[in-house]
Amino acid sequence: MSEHLRTALDLVASQIPVLPLRAGKVPFGNCRRCADNACGGRPNMKTPGPCACPGPCHGWAAATTDPYVIGCGPWRRAWLCASAVAYHPGGAGLTVVDLDNADAIAWAREHLPATQTVPTTRGEHWLYLGTMPSANAVRPGVDIKSRMSYARWLGSGTGSKAALPDVVRALTAAKPAAPAPTTVTVPAPAGGEQCRHRTPAFLERGIAMAEQRITEATSGVHNAVYRTFLAVLSTHGRCDCLTEDHITRLFTAAQSKGESARHCTDAWGNARTRLGL
């Protein structure tokens, strides 16, 4: 039994709905008819796709507390192949305040009541008892993960869970304006193969559409940025047409939505890894 499968079974015993994540921290589909996007839905997103399954089966909606589905059912293989375990905070009666950097942690320590804290790769998750709507970039470096969202399981952390305070609920009432983009150091462009594009206008149109896709995202900004980077690299990543200017434009669009430079770099790297670049 894999470590992730064992963790998932331990969590469902505590009635915490779980789902497997594959490379890039994105979920699997949860039924055969929707595998590989066959239903026309969007399994990389946090919202269910328009499938005709008995129940919604994409993203956060794939989370389950049924040990058969996890350990013995047809999707056991997904758990055996999983790169991480995620859970649906709202389904467990929880809200996760996702603090993405040191500045966000300092803000939380000053303004939020102490609660259960879990270290993450870039910051901390603060867990509160109670649910609320999920939202990204409610302030610089701060996301809210609760209903209709998922969070990576990174252990139980330290401390005891406090009740969800009004100051956290108020974060989604009125988002502040996104901070002005900062100067970032972008990774070297992918390349090495002959460019297959007939005119520069094809690339320009693609970059402009990618910028628009990011800036128009109203929820799930982390996922929107990753999916957009993946789409750009899948089309332009194996030739020499991408320049540092193009990558900077994409990073700047992401930062205008509250993403950090670190997340942009990580998302770009994850997209390249998935495509084998």
Compact overview of the structure:
The chain is α+β, with helices and mostly antiparallel strands.
Hey, roughly how much beta strand do the residues contain? 5-15%
- Mean pLDDT, to the nearest integer, reads 80
Which residues sit in consecutive blocks of at least 5 with pLDDT less than 50? Answer: 41-50
Could you say which structural class the secondary elements and strand pairing correspond to?
Answer: alpha+beta
Q: Count the DSSP helices.
A: 9
Q: Give helix % range.
A: 25-40%
SSE order, one letter for each helix or strand:
HEEHHEEHEEEEEEHHHHH
Largest sheet: 6 strands, mixed
Global shape: globular
- Count of distinct strands: 10
Q: Separation of termini?
A: 32 Å
* Overall radius of gyration: 19 Å
Write structural notes for this entry.
The chain is of the alpha+beta class. The protein is built from nine helices and ten strands. It has helices at 3-13, 67-71, 76-81, 102-111, 166-169, 200-215, 221-236, 244-256, 261-275; strands at residues 18-22, 26-27, 84-87, 94-99, 116-119, 124-129, 135-139, 142-145, 151-152, 162-163. The strands form two sheets. Strands 4, 5, 6, 7, 8 and 10 form a six-stranded mixed sheet that branches. The chain has a four-stranded antiparallel sheet with strand order 2-1-3-9. Helix 6 (200-215) packs antiparallel against helix 7 (221-236) and helix 6 (200-215) runs parallel beside helix 8 (244-256). The longest helix has 16 residues, at 200-215. 42% of the residues are buried. Residues 41-50 have low confidence and may be disordered.
